[in-house]
Amino acid sequence: MNLFKVISEIEKLDPEANERYSFYSRRNLIKYGTNLAAAAVPTLMATTFNQAFAQSTTPSQAAIDVANFALTLEYLEDEFYKNGLAASGLVPTADRTVISQISKHETAHVNLLKTALGAAAVAKPTFKFPAATFTTYSTFLATAQAFEDTGVQAYKGQAGTLINDKQILTVALQIHSVEARHASEIRRMQNLKGWVSNPQQTTFTQGGVNLKNLTALSGQSDDALRAAFDEPLTKEQVLAIVTPFLA
């Protein structure tokens, strides 16, 4: 039996297989010894892979809570764009293709998170939007910008909680990067810069490093420093933003 060939084939299906297998194979070789009879190899392989893959298939409750938090945000965005497209004359013909594509993305995000969560997925809540949300296109775009910017920062803020739950973390990262593209595109449609410079941001420390103390950034304005690094939002901050839209 060519064990390396077997492992190679598994890696084609799961790129992280080698990482998990390496750890458990070493542990099992210590347990069983290196002088294995051929008949014992299948048993060792089964034990090794069962242990390795069991580690990555059961998310923690904390990861499930974060994924449901993200799912609620995606439900909100999904309904928002669907309502906007359904409002007669709201979205100009020139922008309808872009808004429709963003809407399809949000629906896909909902479906991906629901699939990842399975029976643990929360049901879609009832949303309410201010009366003016779908009356003018400028208001619609401003609301879209608020939702997209919040979504990007919300995913970023929960990354630390998911660090040991690779399955949910992978799903979150797949969505996070697309939400960032949405945010940039919505800003472009309003003739704004694609990046964010939050005037309320008064601290300039990233990863424990004060940006103003870096020689390479010397002389840059506060606005430029704010725009260069996106700030995460805590769950509490995000809920404060979206709660008014929950019926």
Written account of the structure:
The chain has 247 residues and is mainly α. The chain has two domains: 3-54, no CATH class; 61-195 and 230-245, Ferritin, core subunit, four-helix bundle (Ferritin). 62% of the residues lie in helices and 2% in strands. The protein contains nine helices and two strands. It has helices spanning 3-13, 17-32, 41-54, 61-86, 93-117, 137-158, 166-189, 222-228, 235-242; strands spanning 205-206, 209-210. Strands 1-2 form a two-stranded antiparallel sheet. β1 and β2 (209-210) form a beta hairpin. The longest helix is centred in the first third of the chain and has 26 residues, at 61-86. The relative contact order is 0.11. Residues 20-27 and 51-55 have low confidence and may be disordered.
Keywords:
2 strands, 247 residues, Ferritin, mainly alpha, single chain, 2 domains, Ferritin-like_SF
CATH class of the largest domain: Mainly Alpha
**Main sheet summary:** 2 strands, antiparallel
Total count of domains: 2
Please bin the fraction of helical residues. Answer: 55-70%
Q: Based on CA inertia axes, which overall geometry fits?
A: globular
Distance between the termini: 61 Å
From the coordinates shown, what is the CATH architecture of the largest domain? Up-down Bundle
Taken in chain order, the helices and strands follow as HHHHHHHEEHH
- Say which CATH homologous superfamily of the largest domain is assigned: Ferritin, core subunit, four-helix bundle
Q: Report strand %.
A: under 5%
Q: Which stretches of 5+ consecutive residues score pLDDT under 50?
A: 20-27, 51-55
Largest sheet strand order: 1-2
Please tally the helical runs, counting DSSP H or I stretches of 4 or more residues: 9
Organism: Spirosoma terrae
Protein name: Ferritin-like domain-containing protein
Pfam families: Ferritin_2
